[in-house]
Amino acid sequence: MNKQESKYQNTASLMDEAFLLLLEKKDYDRITVKEICEKAGVNRTTFYLHYESVNDLLEETISMINKRFTDSLSTVDWGDLRKEVLTSEKYLKPYLTLIKENKRAYRVVRQKGNLFNTKDAFDGLYRTLFSPALSHFGVSERDKKYVLAFYTQGTVAIIEEWIDGNCKDDVDIIIGLIMKHTLAYENS
């Protein structure tokens, strides 16, 4: 990465972090470009060199948060995984902790999902995490979408309910709930 690219990335990171800090204090619809720029220490021109709107910044911020999660799992030894890989504490804890730390950003994406290309983000997670895990356990290409839908729909419903409740319950409670109901199905 050359010096110009590095500076561009650093400025984008400053705006991502400033935006997350503002989201902790204000509703998304009330955050202005001016506030983001003041918090990040950049001017409005710089903001508009990077983004067309606050929606674009939110989309990038969510991508950055999701990349942090995927990066944290990049060293996983897939040969070591248990059958309940998609719902095991080893993987749920970092993910749910990330959501709790960024709950307002995730709530906005959930509420305004139509503004963001969330399908692309999920497709990226599918390619890098879910599909290899399902392959490891011998799930055929034909069946992968169904098996993944079964596990993720229930898990997502629990997580969405938790976000709606402002993530008040401890992460370990949510992990236990997801694992309990996943294991109950697997043992039936």
Question: What characteristics describe this protein?
Answer:
188 residues; mainly alpha; Arc Repressor Mutant, subunit A; 2 domains; 73% helix; globular
Q: How many distinct domains?
A: 2
How would the global form be characterised? Answer: globular
Number of strands: 0
- Helix and strand content put the structural class at mainly alpha
Instruction: State the major sheet.
Output: none
Helix content: over 70%
Element-by-element helix/strand order = HHHHHHHHH
**Percentage of residues in DSSP E strands:** under 5%
From the N-terminal CA to the C-terminal CA, the straight-line distance is 52 Å
Q: Helical region count?
A: 9
Write the layout of secondary structure elements.
Elements: H1 3-25, H2 33-40, H3 44-50, H4 54-72, H5 89-101, H6 103-111, H7 118-136, H8 141-164, H9 171-186
